[in-house]
Amino acid sequence: MDPICCSDLLRQNVCREHVEEIRTKRFNIGEDQQQSELALMLQGAIEQLSAELYQKDIRFLPELLQNAEDNNYGPGVTPSLEFILTDQDVADVGASATLLLFNNETGFQEKHMSSLCAVTMSTKKGQRNKGYVGEKGIGFKSVFLVTAQPYVISNGYRVRFQDMPHDQAGLGYIVPEWAHTPTDAELGRVYGKERGDLPTTTLVLPLRDNKVEAVREQLKKISAETILFLSQVCTFTVREDSNGASQQALSITRETVWSKYGNHEGAAAANSTVRLSVEKSAAPKSSSRLYFLSQHSFPVAAAQVVEQRKNVDSWVLTLAFPLDDRILGSTVGDLYAFLPTELTTGFPFLVNADFLLASSRETILFNNPWNMGILGCISEAFSRAFLCLLHNSDNMLGSLDSSKFKVRDVYKFVPAEKCNHPQLEEVRQALLQTLRDNDRTVLVSGKVGHRIPKNEKFFCKPESGRRIRPAFRKILQEACEQGVELPELLLSGRCYIVDGRVEKDYDKQLEQIGVPRFSAREYAQCLKSPDWISSLGEKLYVKLLDFVKENYDSPEFLAVFPHIPLLKYRSDTHEPEGDCFLLASVEEAAAHNLGGKKIYRSPLAEGEWLSKWTNLLRLYAPVCYIPAQTIQALDGEDKLLEWLEEKADIKPLTVFDYAKEIWKLLPVIGAADIVILMTQFLFCASQGNYFAAEAWESFIKCTVGFRQDCSGRMPFVDDHGSVIVPGRMNRTKILLLPRRYPEIKWPLLFLDDAIWDPHVMRMADTYMEPQVRMMKDLREETNLSRYKDFLCDFLGAADVLEFNPPNQRLPARIFSTSTGSIGKEQLFLLLTWITKCLKKNQKIPLNFLQSLGENAWVQTLHHGLQRPSRCFLLDSLHLYALESTDVPVLDYEIYGPYILEYKNALQVLGVIVGVSSEDRKSATFTVAAHLNDLSQKAARLVSRESVTRLYRYLQRNSCSTDWEPYSPVAAAFGGPRIWIPAFSSHGTHEPSWVQPADCVIRDTASALSKKLVPLERIYNQDREILQFFTERLKVSEVPGIESYCELWLEWTTTKHAVNRKECVEVWMKIALQHSNLQISSTHFWRKFCSQAWIPSVRAGDRSGASLQLTAPRDVFIPDDLSLAHMFATLAETVQPRFMWFDNTEIGLEAASKLCSQIGVNNLSTSVRKLEVPLTTLTSRDCYEESSTGVRYVCDGLFRAILGYLSKNGVNIRKRHDLLCPLMATPEMTIKSSILRSYLLQNDSAVFIEAKETVMAYWDRERKLLYRLEFEDLKDLNVESRTNFCIQFVTTIAEGLLTQHPSLKVDGLRDFLLPLVPFNFELEFVDCVLRHKNMQIYPEDEKFLASAGL
């Protein structure tokens, strides 16, 4: 036998004996023992622990890989692990597929097999400090998730385990049994004979049918980065054998290509570069990726020590930075506990450390002190690795030709995205802060002019770095290439420009570590460096302007860019070309704040003519230009030129522009000759061909506004030699052309300078004398007519016919007949002026027009000087049925027939010129006004025929107009008046004018015959004229109440005795009309009520013999007939006076209403009733009514009261409460007569007393009711009987209801009164209650019965 084979057999025997020993000693197999309860409990614990730890099918793959990493390997052996998935039933157990694992470790020893046959007895437990990855002790048990009976073949061991409990041991999972199959030959066929001997250790896993596809998918998804942090396994292979055809599916190789161990900034560190190579059967060629691994050690703080790691005194963190893109298809997380977890941090690098994992190994245990300590070290570890890679990448990676990694790519490892987990986000923030605090984190650009030694890199602190816009970076780079030093800000060392490639690719990462952008203020500081701008070449300067243009309108720059002086310009047109120039800001250029000057971008374009004027006006109107070199560099930059024009108002200079410059300077020029010179320049420019038609129109629109507001905007020189600047004064005056101008009109009309000076100004006559220098230009290029038009257009100058009249009332002295200031020539000039305004649709000022229309200055026939508004044209007069003697007519002999050509102007002044509807309406007002004028003259000067025609005209035409005779004008003269001829009956012996209020159409009262003029008799009953008086002048048909009131007030003051006829004719008319009119608020009525006396008679006078006028305070209205009768029986000497009225004319109510308004008091409210003196009611004077006599306080009275109260809505309880006091009151009789007094006092303090016999009285305080003593009511006379009945029911009603105002005393009294004569008999009372529909309810019956009634 081959010696090697012999040794293998010997080894197998030893291993088999060891397995049998385990079965016998540990699990009691082979002995006659029953299954123990401990075995059952252990089986359940194994199943539960496995289910908890490995809830996913694929968890067994990392466990097996972890075991391979922890295995021992022989010298010179490259540790490798290979999975083969085959559809063969290799173990011959009926499996549809088998997964095989081959590992070239040194092989199982007895301790390893003993560990597999136990729980939590791992040979690696407690040895984390020796580099072992596994620790839970049941990693192998995870294979039971996919197989029911795994096979282990290693170093002589051939063992099978099953998940089903053994019959004798009562346990599964850990009970070994020797396996004869599969044989090495069978395994060799799967592994491949051509590959040589089998690896030392093989695991055969017959897969559960429901796990085959899951295993296949997970094998395909294994990431190449799985073995990145392993220290031993360098090769990892996955193959699939289908239908006997074996193919390589995936092969991963880990290779360390560079490593260095030492210290980094005083801390231990180990850096290396690892290449992961991947070969896939589907890929045409293999792919590889480089990873920079940086390992750092940190001491474990006491607060972070936990039981599981009590023997570990340091944390070792390894960070892996993918120098290339990560391998495609990588599905594992980026947080490792030697092997990948499923936790994704979001960091652009991978982290490996000895984390404590959750049971499923999917994530770490957050909030665990050990893990939190490790997480706290990540920021420091990253900072060390990041800075090491940043500062030494060229040395470390320069020899790796396959790597495209550059220094700038280090910034891609800065975690720019926020982490989802709060603890990880804290790590990220701490990491970023360490970078922010480091002075050499940011790579500075070496191409913009920073003073950095050649071929060296310079780094700065993030807060000192600056990210800038690409366009500005390019400008700085080109300036550097041209040898231009940086602006002062960038040379000061306070800030540095970040490397352009870093900013372009990793701008977000720079932002996260705190590298600010170049602020608008910092851009402004750079641009405010005049030496730097002056050092730039013109093309580069144009690029700088373009940069400003592109960013100008952004909110960030809009606050600073307009104020930066960066626009080049020259201030002197004829200065020799050179490098000297000035700088202006966009704001200054746009606002023309350069000493009032504007910048232009091109030289003069109109040649000699404009040059002559600019030289002439150089001291007053200088111009500014952009330098010629800059203009040349701007050629073709159309958008930039448009921007300069839009924002800075920089345009080419033309005559049009220069004219506007002259226009702006005019207000600041104080010399009169210079103002006139500039005015003539503008005139010459407008007359030559230097303005395009559109430009001239534009110039007019932007400068001239006087045609709209009657005020020019251009300064001018007045006739006193003063320069008038419109902007410095309230230009409301009219500017008149020079007096020496030919055919000027205004001197003819402006006769009185004192009137017109507040409204006009006069141009200086020197405007008609051109300056010596411009004499030739003026006379050759224009004429006086055009010059006049120019002065009118640009200065707002005008002649009298070319502007509106001033809005000013002309003084009365102008229209005085003594001065004769407005003659025929002035009249026609005024009419021409008004006509011209009308043709231009210009509104004539109201004050000016009114002063012409309201003053008498027009000559008329028969009526002398008249206002225009009072006049007619003669040819239209016959159309109004009037004669020239009736109204004023313009005098044709003075004005001539030509006046008819100005009808429109005359109509504006108020003259009646035709018969249109407007003319007719005006004619009515004119006739009425003329009639009002006549009423101010002596009536004897007016003929009856003329005034009759005027009245008849107004009546016929006033209905078609809004004419109102009671106008403010008429009211100023006392209102319209009526012409009255001599009228003897009225006391007038010559014609007169009277007020309409003093007239009446017809008089019906002889008492008023001397107060009112009866017009019906004067105008011979001419109904048309009388109707005019009635409708338009408001003359009453008959005398009104005012007339009667005035007459009555006369009588009040002149006489006290009046007769019945006078009272009927006047007093009754006042009472009647007063009741029909609403006049209580009028003045005359208030006067009448306060002064009138009242017709009155004595109380007992029925004949009216005592009729006289009495002051209202001494008269009473007899509203209570009982009281009136009582006082009428007194002696005549003491009787009060009652108001008088005539029943045939008016009733008591109307008379009482009139007297009440005048102040007469009612009798009922003026009388004071005195209570019965209680001292007269003694026990001797009264006794209780005997039971045989008639009692009035009885059941019938109570029933009547209850019925009445229930009918009026009083509830049961309240009506019973009201009645109780009466039911408890005894009825007493009065033996002797008792009198009650009534006192009447007028406003004159006179007392009148009347008395009556008391027949009934209820003393509620003493709870007694008294009545007159009699046997039978019929024994009394009618008057006494009636008085008793009334007093009794009144006493009852008042006693019951006085304290209850909601119930009417009069109602109860009137209801009870007819029941008294019947002694309140029950049958009669019940009959009346039924008749009145009043009801006694059962509750009322019960109430009466309880009282014994």
Please supply descriptive tags for the structure shown above:
single chain; alpha+beta; Heat Shock Protein 90; five-stranded mixed sheet; 50 helices; 46 strands; flat; Auxin_embryo_med; HATPase_C_sf
Explain the overall architecture:
- InterPro entries: Auxin_embryo_med, HATPase_C_sf.
- The structure is a single chain.
- The protein is of the alpha+beta class.
- Among the domains are: 218 residues, Heat Shock Protein 90 (2-Layer Sandwich); 183 residues, no CATH class; 80 residues, no CATH class; 128 residues, no CATH class; 177 residues, no CATH class.
- Helices cover 38% and strands 15% of the residues.
- The chain has 50 helices and 46 strands.
- The strands form 13 sheets. Strands 5-4-3-6-2-1-7-8-9-10-11-14-12-13 form a 14-stranded mixed beta sheet. A 5-stranded mixed beta sheet has the order 36-35-38-37-39.
- Strand 23 and strand 24 form a beta hairpin.
- Helix 21 packs parallel to helix 23 and helix 45 runs parallel beside helix 49.
- The chain is flat.
- About 2% of the residues have low confidence.
